[in-house]
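hey so i finally got around to running the thing on that chain from the lab meeting. sorry it took forever, my laptop kept dying and i had to restart like 3 times. anyway pasting the input first so we r on the same page abt which one it is
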Amino acid sequence: MTLYLQRSLLFLFLFFCAAVPSRAAEWAVVIVSSERSTAYQEAADAVLGELARSNVTRRDVHQMTTAEWNAAEVTGARLFIALGVEATTVLARSEVKAPVLATLLPRASFERVLRDCGRRVSGQFTALYLNQPLTRQLDLVRLALPQARRVGVLLGSESLAQQAQLEEAAVTRSLKLVSARVEPQEPVFNDLKKILNEADVLLALADPQIYNSSSIQNILLTSFRAQVPMVAFSPAYVRAGALLAVYSTPTQIGQQAGAMARAFFQGRALGLPQYPQDFSVSVNEYVARSLGLNLEPQALTERLRRLERGS
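ok and heres what got predicted. didnt touch it at all, straight out
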């Protein structure tokens, strides 16, 4: 092979590489999950279903875990969607230029990631929270337990920032907030007993300092013995012994995230962080009967939706 021919082939090869973009640059959306799990896949499938309505097909979307991200360092996409805290952290620390929509994480966790990574909330890095607005949680208390007037709340390092907002929302609903600040490294149960002595209902907020796998069974047992029902934030807690919970399923979250992504591809900004629009209510029938209550979850869900619509 002559030197001229070698140079010609090299030129053609380099020209081809420059002319054909990498597959990463062609993705419309990259979905990064904190891990492989049923919940994350349900949310991702719902996102894909919504995107299909705006002609963004599965071929235009790349799904990966944070472990795969660390190995590949994908940067080419028009939009990134992070599912969970770890995925949000990975994207917050990355150099991606495209907007990031974080979801399947509580508001406090999202704000902690921003602080730790030196990020600010913007249309370029925003969130769809997993937890419910405080107003919705208190409205559920009023609908399910109309005789309850004193709402007990344990506040940890993450939920303490919500105290003022919670007090304001309680006052507008003629409810009295009975709260206690649980210091880090301190046992929960001294403050819990004080709250249960004064409250008609215990409202659980998503704060891992207070509610975690090590503490939840004892908290539920203590509140059950005190005949103070817990209104929780997870159907798992209802199955474990909480009276009821309002929450959004991974599919409901994914549908809303997909709708936000669809609007983005239609030229609208992602906007500031927001709470879930759709939700479900779960009831522990055994606990309800023990308290002399007859609560129907679907009826409560519909009443809560009508209340929010103002109808």
